[in-house]
């Protein structure tokens, strides 16, 4: 019998849990990309390119010239944009034969960009968040002069508008407009631009009364969409979203991923790009009371169980029924130690989806290299509780050795392993053992080398109650 004890400490494999279809680009450094949805959609739509070596390099900073290319690809499409030329040098440091000359010239003529006071553009310089947001607002139809995006306080006005319309949605951390934008952040902001509503201005009028002339300058108004493209971006609202105007071959609908989490399903023409889970409103990796979910959502009234859906590993489970999300319920709970519990609140329908994703323990029994008929994969043997209808193969290019301990997630909905990660090995002497059989499972824990490890819901190996101090 193998002598090991498996504990899981707040495991959250968020990137590994993203479900992507085979249509998405497979960059060699995809594991380093935080905003997979944005990078996949923008690269499939050919708004941004990867590098010749197959990498995307998500953390590379975006240059001013590359930003102009992105804007042109968004507005004109990559084919038309690639044919742009500069009849004359748009700036003194951007000659007509410069790589980005055509893109920069177009953005200059349309008022989307402006250079420096000395007549230069500095195309190789990095671009700040404020500057890129200003360019995206220009693509959406906002007039820099009318909106105050020029002058000493331009960045404040840009930030107010950009953040108000959600161009920074799903950004990890707070938006820092002074910091240089990297390539994957640029994709995130551009993706949010695709789903943002475009604006337009009514023609200005001048009225003269006696010796007084009054100029009436209209403010930005949502662009109306009464055509066939209305509804390509989530739902028909009578407004023109950017993608509805410029990307007639791109569409997104609401669906669910392999763990039943609400998700965006993107398609380019009829080809599926991928399915991407929404960002959860609440995330837990231990047991949580219903009343705490109520409080953490900031609810003012209870939500009926009829409007609550609960899924465990992608399917409904009678052991975790839907319950009223109410203020005083401190008896009913969701989740457990080492279980990724996410809560999604739909404000429009006043409904809640709760998903639980278990982390299981296994070992690698075989590693198979890729062939011309099948991608590389590993075979996983369960060490802890085995999921129902278990299928043991998982496609991956990650390197594992036989008998390696791994942590994996499994979709009962799709009947397949969704992620595999190498387990971390911890060795040392137990100084505290909280393993009384009379205690609740969330009280069982070991302290090794000064760190406390709680038992996970799917603990594997030796019985925790058999482990004592000094072992």
Please tag this protein with its features.
single chain; 471 residues; alpha+beta; five-stranded antiparallel beta sheet
SSE topology:
Blueprint: E1 5-6, H1 36-44, H2 64-76, H3 78-82, H4 101-109, H5 129-139, H6 144-147, H7 154-164, H8 183-194, E2 199-200, E3 205-209, E4 212-216, E5 221-222, H9 242-246, E6 250-256, E7 262-268, E8 271-277, E9 282-284, E10 288-289, H10 290-297, E11 308-312, E12 333-334, E13 340-346, E14 351-357, E15 360-368, E16 377-382, E17 393-395, E18 405-411, E19 416-422, E20 430-434, E21 445-448, E22 451-454, E23 460-461
Parallel strand pairs: 11-14
Antiparallel strand pairs: 1-23, 2-5, 3-4, 6-7, 7-8, 9-13, 10-12, 13-14, 15-16, 15-18, 16-17, 18-19, 20-21, 21-22
Helix pairs in contact: 1-8, 2-4, 2-5, 5-7, 5-8
């Amino acid at each position: 019998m193998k002598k090991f004890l498996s504990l899981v400490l707040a495991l959250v494999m968020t990137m590994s849990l993203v479900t992507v279809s085979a249509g998405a680009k497979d960059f060699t450094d995809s594991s380093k990309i935080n905003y997979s949805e944005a990078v996949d959609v923008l690269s499939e739509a050919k708004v941004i390119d990867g590098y010749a070596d197959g990498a995307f390099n998500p953390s590379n900073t975006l240059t001013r010239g590359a930003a102009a290319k992105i804007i042109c690809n968004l507005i004109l499409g990559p084919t038309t944009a690639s044919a742009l030329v500069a009849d004359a040098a748009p700036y003194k440091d951007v000659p007509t034969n410069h790589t980005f000359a055509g893109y920069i010239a177009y953005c200059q003529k349309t008022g989307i960009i402006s250079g420096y006071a000395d007549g230069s553009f500095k195309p190789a310089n990095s671009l700040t968040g404020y500057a890129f947001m200003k360019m995206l607002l220009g693509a959406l139809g906002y007039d820099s002069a009318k909106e105050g995006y020029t002058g000493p306080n331009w960045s404040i006005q840009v930030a107010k508008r950009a953040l108000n319309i959600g161009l920074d949605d799903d950004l990890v951390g707070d938006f820092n407009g002074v910091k240089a934008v990297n390539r994957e952040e640029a994709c995130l902001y551009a993706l949010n631009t695709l789903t943002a509503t475009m604006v337009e201005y009514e023609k200005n009028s001048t009225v003269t009364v006696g010796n007084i002339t009054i100029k009436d300058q209209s403010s930005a108004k949502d662009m109306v969409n009464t055509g066939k493209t209305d509804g390509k971006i989530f739902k028909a609202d009578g407004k023109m979203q950017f993608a509805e105007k410029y990307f007639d071959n791109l569409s997104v609908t609401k669906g669910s991923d392999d763990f039943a989490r609400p998700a965006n399903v993107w398609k380019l023409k009829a080809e599926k790009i991928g399915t991407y889970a929404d960002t959860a409103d609440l995330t837990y990796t231990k047991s949580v009371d219903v009343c705490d979910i109520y409080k953490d959502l900031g609810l003012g009234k209870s939500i009926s169980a009829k409007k609550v859906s609960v899924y465990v590993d992608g399917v409904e489970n009678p052991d975790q029924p839907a319950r009223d999300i109410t203020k005083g319920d401190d008896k009913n709970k969701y989740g457990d130690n080492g279980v990724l519990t996410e809560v999604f609140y739909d404000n429009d329908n006043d409904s809640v989806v709760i998903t639980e994703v278990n982390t299981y323990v296994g070992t690698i029994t075989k590693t198979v290299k890729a062939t011309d008929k099948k991608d590389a994969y590993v075979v996983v043997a369960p060490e802890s509780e085995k999921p129902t209808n278990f299928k043991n193969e998982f496609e991956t290019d990650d390197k594992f050795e036989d008998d390696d301990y791994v942590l994996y997630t499994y979709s009962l909905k799709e009947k397949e392993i969704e992620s595999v990660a190498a387990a971390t090995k911890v060795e040392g002497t137990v100084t505290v053992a909280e393993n009384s059989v009379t205690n609740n499972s969330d009280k069982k824990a070991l302290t090794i080398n000064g760190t406390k490890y709680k038992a996970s819901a799917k603990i594997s190996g030796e019985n925790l109650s058999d482990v004592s101090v000094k072992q």
